[in-house]
Design a protein that fits this description.
The chain is α/β, with parallel strands linked by helices and 478 residues long. It is built from 14 helices and 19 strands. The chain has helices spanning 9-12, 19-39, 53-68, 91-110, 126-135, 151-161, 206-210, 218-230, 256-264, 284-291, 309-315, 321-334, 353-366, 393-416; strands at 44-49, 72-73, 81-86, 115-120, 141-143, 165-167, 188-192, 194-195, 214-215, 235-239, 271-275, 299-301, 339-346, 370-375, 422-430, 437-442, 447-451, 460-468, 472-477. The strands form 5 sheets. A 6-stranded parallel β-sheet has the order 2-1-3-4-5-6, with helices on both faces. Strands 15-16-17-19-18 form a 5-stranded mixed β-barrel. It has a 3-stranded parallel β-sheet with strand order 7-10-11, sandwiched between helices. Helix 9 (256-264) packs parallel to helix 10 (284-291) and helix 12 (321-334) packs parallel to helix 13 (353-366). It is globular, with a radius of gyration of 23 Å. It starts with 8 loop residues before the first helix and ends with a strand.
Amino acid sequence: MQMDLKKNPENEAPLTEPERQYYFIEQAKAYVKDLSDRLGRPLTYCVTTFGCQMNARDSEKLRGILSDIGYQEAEETEADFVLYNTCTVRENANTRVYGRLGALKPRKKKNPHMLIALCGCMMQEPQVVEKLKKSYPFVDLIFGTHNLYKFAELLVRRFKSGHLVVDIEDQADAIVENLPNQRKYDFKSGINITFGCDNFCSYCIVPYVRGRERSREPEQILDEIRGMVQDGVVEVMLLGQNVNSYGKTLDHPMTFAQLLREVEQIDGLKRIRFMTSHPKDLSDELIEVMQHSDKICRHLHLPVQSGSTAVLKRMNRHYTKEDYLRLVDKIKTAMPALSLTTDIMVGFPGETEEDFEETLDVVRQVRYDSAFTFLYSKRSGTPAASMEDQVPEAVMKERFDRLLIEVQRTADEACAAHTGEIQEVLVESVSEHDPAMVTGRLSNNLLVHFQGDKSLIGHFVNVRLATCKGFYFIGDMV
């Protein structure tokens, strides 16, 4: 590719961030324009996100940079640039990526201008990177979680060299924000308040691939939210692997509850959500702030993982079954109408039938509005992977089916209790199943479908909850 760029743009780039990345964004624009002119059409991209809402927020930043340098969003089957933002929490997440990647090979061979990139948690595993280099040599760019902000710089390096660029950093030394981003929704957005995790649950690979916990400075967070609100955002979700431990790494420590009080003061912001809360760090101060807030949504996601104290100890969760139930009682006493959701793992090494019955007992006592249930997946590199007494797959599946029945029963009852109520709904989209209906979300995170058109998207409307369908409602706009 013949370009009128300096041979070594890195030598001219600023050393400070994010100024350095904006320099490379300008460099990338020139490469994209040159290729677009030669093809006689705009270049297109597709970012596919695997995993959690932290990944979804990262993908908004990647999409923002790609749009800024001249790419237009398209379906994956047509895109000139395909980027997979990967998750590695479970083994099958890796398998899915490999399958999708293999399907791209014929397209890449047919379209040599096509670029394929992989980033995210999966790339922080050295054996994954080696497998990609050996078995998928048609990949163009590989980078991890700690240097995602360097996307434009790495892309310029790929444009210059014409060869695979691999850039993985073992640990995170900086938090770089204020880069372009393209939100999925105009009216709501996630915002990172912490990165990484210090909990080291024995089954979890997150601390190894996302690094140790770091908190963003409160003024950076507040300024970013103010900017979002000026741009039309009415709902934000504060994101972190454990939002309840926010502020511990700051030079001037601040609690998560104190941060929420500051966020509440932002004019024009209507709703505040957050995820995820670790039970061991949820404070009385946070409960009090939630109890008296008009903006914090009436929904709390509080992962229990297991109802067995013995299993929780092996998981390194730092609370007992009794601790968790006392916390739930405290929360429900303060906020009886709060929707409570959770994560539950089945089949952790050494889990006995008695341990599993303890989990069912917690489900019956707490009566969750919904639960993310999943089978334990061995992740190499975690302490749990080398534990003895791995539970046979058939036993796990049998327990999982029993858990689903119990969760569904209590969730149906919790949801049905709202039948007939009139609640405020933020309309999010046209219904996927009926174009004459729209889909919105209540403060308690339940979905409701009702008659309406796309002009309602992004607006708050009052809806009567007419018919409960389990995890969602059919309603009527009032």
